[in-house]
Every structure is written in C-alpha cells, then in structure tokens.
Specification:
Helix 4 links the parallel strand 8 and strand 9. Helix 2 runs parallel beside helix 3 and helix 4 runs parallel beside helix 5. The strands form four sheets. The chain has a seven-stranded mixed β-sheet. Helices cover about 20% and strands about 25% of the residues. The protein has about 350 residues and is an alpha+beta fold.
Length: about 350
Amino acid sequence: RDGSPQSLEHMSSLPPLPVRALRWRASPHPSPSSYSVMCWNMLAQCYTRSEYFPSVSPKSALKWKHRGPAIVAEVQRLAPDVIALQEVDNWDFMSSELGSAGYDGVRKGKTGGKKDGVAVLWKRALLRLAESEEVETDIKGGVGLLVRLEPASAASDGGGSFVVATTHLFWNPQLEVLKLRQAELCLRRAAAFARGGPLVFCGDLNSMPGSDVLALCEGGVAVRHTFTPMREGDDEESGACEPEAAPPAVETFEPPLRLHSAYEPPPAYTTLTDTFRGCLDHILLTRHWRCLATLDMIDEADILAEKSLPSSRFPSDHMPVLAVLSLGGADAGERATNEDDEWSDRSYKSYDSAQDDRPWH
C-alpha cells in the first residue's frame, strides 16, 4: 500500500469494508456435494491506465502493489471452493499467493498479443483436476477454459465430477454479433466437454440480462440477431467502428445446451464505473445443479463513497459474484425431468432480436 500521507488520510476516512451476506434459498446446511463457485473479472493490470478511470483517487489505488494483495485478500475473505477469473495477468503472483492459500489452478492466455487471460482455481483439499481443455475463438483474441474437477477423496472413476467453464466475451456493445459468435463457440465446446454431465458456465459475458447473448445461453432458443455490418479495424480502446454501406444483416445462433442463472433475479449491477453501470458477470448452470444461495451485491452507496470502481477498497472495476451449488436434490431432479422432455424434441421457439423493443437494444 502506498504510504504517502495523502493515501493514509484517504484510507482512514473510509468506512470498513462492507460484509456481503449469502442469501439462502434453502436450509444453510450444504451437502458433501455442494460447492461455492465465484466468478470475478479481476481487472488486468495492463488495463489500469488512469485515463480509463479518472475518478480513482488516489491514483496509487491502480498500482499492482496495492491491487494484487487486495485481490488475493478478497478471494480469501470470500473463500470460494472454485474460482473462475477473467482478465488475469500477473499469473505468477496470483498462482503463488493463492497456492499458499490452498488453491491449485490453470490459466489460458488470450491470443492476438493480448496480455491477459482466464483462469480456474479450486481448493486442493476438496477437489482435484481430472482434465482440462483450452478454447480459442479466433475472434478478438477471445478464449475459454474448460476444467473437469472431481472430489479429492474420490476413487479415480470420475464419480461426482463436474465441469467449470469460463470465458470473457468481447466488450464492444456495437459488435454484439462478435460476442454471439464467441459465446456459441464456447458453449458448443463446453457442451461437448461436459458430455451431458454437470456444468457451471461463468464469466464476464459483457452482456446484460435480456440481451441476445443471454437469450442464447439461457433461453434454449435459436437467436436471430439483426445487426449493422461494420468495417474491419474497429478501435478496440474507444469502441469506434464504421458501418459498412450495406443493409442490416441477420445471423442465427443455435444453442447447444440450456442453462439457467444462479441468480434469480440477477444483481442490479456487477460493474459500476464512471461511464457504465450494469450486470455483465454471470454464473450459469445446467439442470444438474440446485442453487442453495447467492452472494448479495454490495450496496451502491458503499461503492459511490469513492465515486466508482475500482477504488482503494475495491481493486477491480467488477464485483465478484458467488453461488453455493448442490449436485442433485429434489428441485434439480424435477427441473432435469421437465427440461429433458422439453429439450428432446427441439421444438423450441426462435427468438428474433429484430422484433424486440426492449430499451437496451
């Protein structure tokens, strides 16, 4: 931490870090097949330029010597069994520090010269790695990571295993078609890797609830996405892109599996910065899971005490989301039976974004 008088005075004037409570939907007595799963875009250090975050004060809050330990401390404070991280750079530091805290993990770096990536970590006392697979979308450097975990104490027969998938979709809201292409590819790879078994699909999807991307993930419907074709070479920093002199185009995306959100309803926001407020980070589940609890979001006033994210108390421009999940259970079994019957005939309704008049389109 920066020890300058300005930094110390600023920190001493702030209230203590607020407690985030679990909101239980069932009795708070998880079974041995229950796991807490956290998803967090930790904000890569390579993206912490001061011009991106003009409200951050003191600017020393953006330095890795402050943020790195704060990120590790937040993980230790929440103590999830499984962690899916996005915008992961400084992997040597993260894997070493979290390794000392009892975690093992794997990382996949983005392609195209990007310095960050995605990672999945797990408590080695509870779980062990059975297999993993990397995904490269060949779209804007996007990648995914698929990890099959099994109980650390189980026999080596795959019993009780489950898959965790994570990705970080492209950010530009003018190019949602690229997010959909990335998402469809990652979903297909995750479905094949899971082989019909339990799957947790999570990440910074850079997409709000109700978007075409979430419709593809959650709705179990073919998504007809209408978009304006853009010229190649968009500015990835500003988001500026130039439309082509062409009529609107339509592209259809087929869902390879059906997921549902751990959060019902979703948080009002998972990121709150100078320029944007919304829920972009998601934990999505196959029918095998029952969600026992989700982590409440911090009150907006606690964040706005320092104007926006990130800040001296919150080291990323995103807040972690976390769910306590149980394999099986009466609710999950009933959901599985109903969804299998509905899904098997593939007679689902198509979703057409051109017919959608929601305000975020």
